[in-house]
Amino acid sequence: QVQLVESGGGSVQAGGxxxxxxxxxxxxxxxxxxxxxxxxxxxxxxxxAAIYKTGYDxxxxxxxxxxxxxxxQDNAKNTLYLQMNSLKPEDSAMYYCGAECEGDFIATLTAxxxxxxxxxxxxx
Length: 124
Hints:
Mean pLDDT: 96
Order of helices and strands: EEEEEEEEEEE
Radius of gyration: 13 Å
Oligomer: single chain
Shape: globular
């Protein structure tokens, strides 16, 4: 049974950092695409960062997080990470990890499997 479990959310002040983790289990092989998504109240869910199982682990980022967020994954631990630095109040949202992504553009990416989410709140 596929399962994705996020952790690492919390409350920080603007300029602070958080690292989100997502342990994924139940897959026969590492999913070709793993990604982080977020949804703020009243807003559409958007893709934030994605990592593809290529020879180079290609990564893609939402423009608004480029240079501040880093997606990575650990094969041995079946865990996906999102390092978030220089956080801004507008980064506040529920963050979800997803596996087996669908879509051509990071902002409108979706996924076949989802975690339950972890809340990130950034205060000014």
